[in-house]
Amino acid sequence: MLEIASLRELLAKPKQIVITTHHKPDGDAMGSSLGLYNYLIQKGHHAKVITPSDYPEIFNWMPGNENVIIYPEQTELSNQLIADADIICCLDFNALGRINEMGEFVGKSAAVKLMIDHHLEPQDFDDYRVWDINACASAQLVYRFIVDEMQEPKLINKDVATCLYTGIMTDSGSFRFPTTTAGVHRITADLIDAGAENWRIHQLVYDNSSESRLRFLGHCLTQKLEVFYDYHTALISVTRAELEHYNIVTGDTEGIVNFALSITGIKLAAFIVERPDKVKLSLRSRGDFPANEVCKKYFEGGGHRNAAGGSSTDKLENVVQKFKSILPEYKKLLMQ
Predict the structure, then answer these.
(1) Which fold has domain 211-334?
(2) In Å, what is the CA distance from 121 to each residue of 95, 117, 292, 305?
(3) Which CATH class is domain 4-206?
(4) Which of 50, 63, 171, 218 is the most exposed, fewest CB within 10 Å of its CB?
């Protein structure tokens, strides 16, 4: 592993830098990526953010978003930037498979690779790592990288603060998850002092739904919600046809699983959706229930204990039935 002194020396002069994050980036992925981008350009670096897929339009307002490159739309340019990079920053993911086809090119690159992440079991492809599974968001770790490791707190300007606040806010569930410690609140207070308008960020992210998304949410809650009180579990499953009927776009299904988890007494919630290539699962849990274990063991996925995801190439109805069939195995944990 690279020593911090060597990394500081490397970043002391302008470099060609690529910043990337996981497939279908969420608020933390874009917040941490653009936060780091806005920090690096202040230092004179030639930085580019490349995402492996599109991402929700609700993050298009973030500072620096206009310069983001979406890999499938500009593949040749992206591959050239990766090949020419001196440093590649890998944010909010810890395995090259999470960036799809980009992973092959990043893996082959001779660039120094910096990982900033808070997920379990990191793959050993990086040269320097800021990694903490107890962090509420990768954006929190980007803050730590700038302030503690690079020792440049004065470079957290309004643009950096706005992006990092967005990442922390979204991945902490608006500061309600157990990982939201007193230290996290001190960081967000510092970000507000630096110019992050917390009220405006919340409005832009959470009060910015399309009519079709709201109607789709209503459909999910009235027609698709199943509750299994014997297992303290709730489930919402939707077909590809339903997505098309409501004109659902990237980001519109984000957070729907939390409505199922909000039911009194529910300890495990699942949102299972049929996508064009495979069936995707999002699990959320309370307390000690290991949502990540369920995803890893049965659905080729993983994540955090209380927030995890997986997928399957099987038919939607079979995936739903499989999920239901494993509940007896976890009944003791679910009923605690």
Answers:
(1) Diaminopimelate Epimerase; Chain A, domain 1 (3.10.310)
(2) 9, 11, 12, 13
(3) alpha beta
(4) 218
